[in-house]
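Annex B, item 7. Sequence and structure tokens for protein A, then protein B.
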Amino acid sequence: MATKIGEGVQIITTGCPHDCGGKCILKAWVKDEQIVAITTDDGEEPQLRACLRGRAYRQRVYASDRLKYPMRRTGERGEGQFERITWDEALDTVASEMLRIKKTYGPEAILSCTGPGSLSLLHSTGLWLNRLLGQFGGYTSRHGSMSNQGASDATRFTYGTGIAANEIEDLLNSRFIILWAWNSAEMVYGTNTTWVLTQAREKGIPITIVDPRYTDTAILAEEWIPIYPGTDSAMMVAMAYVMLKEGLHDQTFLDKYTIGFEKFRDYVTGKEDGISKTPHWAETITGVPASTIESLARRYATLKPAALLPGLGMQRTAYGEQCFRTAITLAAMTGNIGVSGGGPAGEWGTRIGLNAMPRVTNPLEKTIPTSKWAEAVLLGKAGGYPSDIKLIYVCGSNFFMQRPNINKGVEALKKVEFIVCHEQFLTPTARFADILIPVTTHLERNDICGIWGMGHSAIFCKQAIAPMDECKSDMEIFSELAPRIGITNYNDHSEDEWLKSLVENTEIDYKEFKQNGVHHFRHEPYIAFKAQISDPVHNPFRTPSGKIEIYSQRLADMNRPDTIPPIPKYIEPWEGRNDPLRVHYPLQLLTTHGKRTALSVYANIPWIQEVEPHAMWINPVDAKPREIQNGDWVRLFNERGTLMIKAKVTQRIMPGVVSIDHGMWYKPDELGVDWGGSVNVLTRDEDTPIGDGGTTHSCLVEAMKA
């Protein structure tokens, strides 16, 4: 909606589709074709109100370090030295290199490095690049997710679908809420999630939070339970023990809707391996007192309906699938699945009633793990990977610093023959490009986005201003590049035609949607698996058995019982509490999502960075023997790298654990020491076993006062 207000000022309703965990309404106040202010939703409920990141978007659009025109590298890779060139020079160079690489090595030598720079429907950053490369003969892709792979795999193998959650508003029908590794106050986790949790607190619904840190979200809880990273499944298994011992589990539900619970029972009670998974057993692993575990188990089993909300943080560990599979099993044991006020404890999110953009299939079946991309580039076919990568195409992603083991990534970027990068700023990844392509921000193009985790709303992200300087959208850039590499049928639709197609045959009237800027789907809060529980005969789960698979034959068939057990188990993580490396690196490191970035977006925006200094959280128990005081510079290191960062000495993090918000830009000195506080200098490029998810929370470090 564009509303005139005052002399020469229009308010344009648009949206913010970054990967922060939510999608919100922005209102751009435009005068003389310039954004003079940004506010947020003040319309009918549900209001989709933006956080401070979205409200600071004007400073991002007009930042002095925005890329304004195409550029070509002049210095060594990584130095960040470039010269201005024309659009024709840039696209002709990219086309020439793509054709050369394909002819010399084959299309599999091209690695597509896309990311969630935009999670909108039309200008989704991976869509247009992979559409081009698919028509070019294919490319090497990546599999696995740094964000949610463990959660998605656990949900898929147990429920038969990748998403399993009640809509967030249904929490107001709960009698008890457990937030496990859940920090929606900072990383959003659904546009209005924290608002709903606030209402739940005001309503008197008890909330418990389980997390190594007392986060901003913990303010809403009546109980904080700190737990060592990587040990969540051990605590959940012990909760199952309490329920079994005291007869608190719902055996009728388990018999009717699940398969394989008896094998899980044998593991929990010790019949399988001779070890009873008691709360005292779990206390030595997790750091959580046995009495606390017992109390939480009893409340979750008896205060029905109860919602267990597992956050993605706990599955970014060595065996991240296990904590989500165990959480789902607890939801089944308590009969909280398919009911209002409960929750299936799976991967979180709900679907929206919009169409998807058509995608071009990659004709090559060549893919590498996303965490191990650098190793794949460095070793290639000789190291067992499917391709020898020669060209990296980066689009919508500060790719290499968002992946673990940054120093290995530097080696990989220096090895390839050509790198092209679409960007808005000279990010750490962009500094390694041979050709830099300037792209528009969300406010310089039209788009549509759905509300992540909330199925009731969609936003029309209306263009507020003309593109800055020489910037173009990815769709425009690839449409101009395509004929240069011999593709004649790349894009035959205008932006408006594509957008209209996204709402065809839905309840949305496109003209009205475009005018108003938002559409609310009116329905009761979605209850996951309500149909399966109310009528299992006609609505089986999408698993091979048609039931909730606590025991998965598909996992058993992988024949890796030590790392991929067919039932949920606690598996001792590498770089955890009992790793021999703790002799040298005694602190567990968390790579948390904070309020100042959306992944690495906004890391260079002053208004956002003024909110809170970038710092390493450390408990006084750990700070005192190291003579570290609040505000001191600290040298944090392990075998993979070293970074310098200031200390925040606080009791809001448990002893033995330190944390750094990820997403800050890598700034190495001449010795390779990072002064930007980029935490992936320290993390290990190893994957979760099933689907190759990120494991950045399985990381040991040492801290020394600088």
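Protein B:
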Amino acid sequence: MGLECPKVAPMRREARIVRWWSTLASSVLVATLLVVSGGAEQTARTAPVAGSTYLCSGYSGCRSAGYSDDGYGANNGRMYWLMYSGHNCTNYAAYRMIRAGMPNSRPWSGSGMAYNWGKAMKSITDTKPAVGAIAWWDRYHNGIGSSGHVAYVEKVVSATEIVISEDSWNGTFHWRSITRSSGRWPSGFIHFRDVKQVEPEGPTEPTEPEQPVDPPITNTAAPAITGEPQVGVPLTVSRGSWTPSPSSYAYQWQAGGVAIGGATGRTFTPTADQLGKTVTVSVTATKKGLRSATATTPATAVVAKGAYANVTAPALDGTPMLDEELTVVGGSWSPAPETITYRWRAGGKVIQGHTESSLVLTPKLAGKRVSVVEVVKGAGFANAKMPSVSTEKVWEGQIEVTTPFALAGKPELGEQLTVAPGEYTPADAEVTYTWLRDGVAIPDAVGPTYVTTAADLGAQITVSAALSRDSYLPPAEAPLAGLEELIRTRPTVSLRPVGKRRRVAVGIRVTAPGLGPVEGRLLVRFGTKQEWVTLDKGRARVVFAPVAPGVRKVRAFLQAGQTAYGAVERIPVRVLR
């Protein structure tokens, strides 16, 4: 297996590599990591890579042999250039460049994986080794795995032999000698901070690890996480308190003690990957001229399953009739669920095999109520459902009127009106009639016939037919039949003319069934003379004079009104000389 080392905090692709390595690491941990026992670091025995020679292993083991780690063993709990801390080739190489005078900020944008270093910094990368340069291996080059590798060049023995120091993910710290012919030679050398080579006089006595000379920033109040540790619910971290005041901060969220790839902001929303794990945040404070410091928040409670919130309730669209289709519409959730399924029931029993949002109504569903429940699911979230929505019973069809209904009879007081039924399907549907006066139902008038009353005078009489049949919808519109004319009464005009010398006096009385005193105007004529008179409580009087003697007819004409027809009356009268 090729050497795999780098871990980088902020990139999504690297987050996937982190998860792959976390799984791989658990299976090889005993064979590759240093073992801590009783506070003393023990050196794991590591087989030499073919074509290269290990000069030492482990921080203390190398220091005891006279090979320095430049203080990294005492400071590897921090992240440099946003690489993951601890045993990690990229974090160690970044540390050495910062120790050589570079700032603690990555000098390129993009991935920090080892295979990308030489590509991102191609302007200062070549094949010539130099002390202080970064030896760089591209992925799958000379026995290296998919992540690539970087190391620090400690010595250039010749153009074909170098000595490097390195650290590795899930491995340990080494010094190693490599020859060009070994098949382990780097892909290139990145010249960030080359230094003049000084020949060592030989192994030195063990010394204490070197420490950064800059004074540190001090954390005076630990940062803290606020928010509910639940999938889908944002968490926020405070910066804590520091002295002196930092100029910038960096954040790294962890779940179960493992860094979360890409989670480097002040807020983070847990996903299904963090379900059942505690969450912490490491806050690194930085200020120019001071040594950066890192403080970690207390752990949250374990991340619980998320909860879906219903935004709008679903509804059923469609007519509950055989061969029609019902469709669930309008339901929405926050956040959007991964899957939505539907549970259909008819008559309270589950309709097997139907989980989609629509259902075609088949004959076996006739006469039953159909209901549906919307169920949502998603990784890391508790299943949720809305209360069911249901239809009326499923109809076999709808009654259809093929021939209109009609109403026969005279629009007159006391006349009988009769419904002439139309035609409809199915033909055995039941019919119920309701008689209406100016659109208002007439009490107790529900048969196929109706005799008009005084209350109907001046009104429009219609009849509505309600059609019903078990398992059938009524017609879209109830049949309605009516008379075109208003209901009226027929009045009687009585004349009492009295002839005198060259004059005629006429008394007039008008009566009508169903009415009280008749009001209105009459035209009264005698010979060539005529007068319009107005009835007062059904009575009027008119006098014609002078008129020629003789026998002639008095004629009266009553105008038709809203409640009464017109009427005419004629009667002879003698005028004296």
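Comment on protein B: Confidence is low (pLDDT under 50) at residues 10-50, 200-213.
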